């Protein structure tokens, strides 16, 4: 891991960009911390620069209550080399959603399974590099999408102690089985009228998780309409499980 | 309204029992309040004395952040005269649930419609009496079950500005139409494995509400297993809408 730039944001949060091998990433740490800060890995749909404003806002919201936050670029997104298979699957998915058709499991598998296979080891490597930095500690939380990545990470990575997942229905059927192995506390955000996701599939996935403590927060509105108060509720969820 | 007893609970909350005509009720007000406290009406399934420990705990939790709370006995419950029709419907319902059979709409209508018809005017009369007391103000919140009573109250009583409803499936079909007329902010608690309620019916009712701001909090466990942290989340929900 190599830091490439650093700056202070309003409120004192330290923002450091880094590369992990070829993968770009960003780390935010609270301005004033007397003790090491628990780390939250922030998931996103890919495209760090496009997602930056929302990610930075979420990181600052977390830093305000004492968390460090970090994210890395997804395979095939942003500045990273494209995968022809993924590009084609993504185009097929957009075509189906645009035409109002159901999205074939086959398209979802073709798009998401290779992404999960490649991304999860990268996020775990990022954890290795982040948790040895001064001022950062586990246990770690995972917050955000891609939900399939969150499911696999929560199932296989013991350093992740709690996850706040953004519900999505583009989840390969194979990952429903892995969801049963997820036993850490979960909070799942579902947008009731999400134009990109099927509500019933999201409810089925919530049902499938093996966690004893899992909470679904369903709110009105479309994909990007998560209410502001859910940010505070996310902080409180992590406060219960990462302290 | 006639006060029949009063006492101070630990923490200074003032608990006053009252009768409104023949209907017993309880009012809790914060120990130290510089300004009038917003009122929360606390719904319950009937049987004030049996429910008292849980109601008092909820009221103290609300009083700790500055709310007054009040409740009244439901028709045909506790010390109030029984209704033969309701008793028979209740027995039919228990028989169906005990046998693991689906509960006929006809039984639900027979049990719940007369209860709603009688209870809602009583709760509105209680509001009339409570809101003229010193130290209590609107807007008012409604919190709890019976959800059918909450639906009707939220639809017809303009002084109720927000409602925290405990999901239940024993809702007459006619009330799904009224749910569309409920436009105040709602938070709905659903116990995912509620032995007394059908999950899909509860989700359908949540879907039916006309409110632009409605949030579903689904948690694991059975009917009485609502996690403790939902008490705090309820307080914050009301803080957003009753202040």
Describe the structure.
The structure is a homodimer of 243-residue chains. With 243 residues, chain A is of the alpha/beta class. The model of chain A has no long low-confidence stretch (mean pLDDT 94). The two termini of chain A are 27 Å apart. In chain A, strands 1-2-3-5-4-6-7-8-9 form a nine-stranded mixed beta sheet, with helices on both faces. Chain A contains seven helices and nine strands; from the N terminus they run E-E-E-E-H-E-H-H-E-H-E-H-E-H-E-H. Chain A has a single domain (2-80, 115-242), classed as Rossmann fold, CATH 3.40.50. At the A-B interface, helix 6, strand 9 and helix 7 of A face helix 6, strand 9 and helix 7 of B. Strand 9 of chain A pairs antiparallel with strand 9 of chain B, so a sheet runs across the interface.
> What is the number of beta strands of chain A?
9
What is the radius of gyration of chain A computed over CA atoms, rounded to a whole number of angstroms? 17 Å
What's the domain count of chain A? 1
CATH architecture of chain A: 3-Layer(aba) Sandwich
- Most extensive chain interface and residues per partner: A-B, 20 and 20 residues
From N to C, what is the helix and strand string of chain A?
Answer: EEEEHEHHEHEHEHEH
How many helices of chain A? The count is 7
Strand order of the largest sheet of chain A: 1-2-3-5-4-6-7-8-9
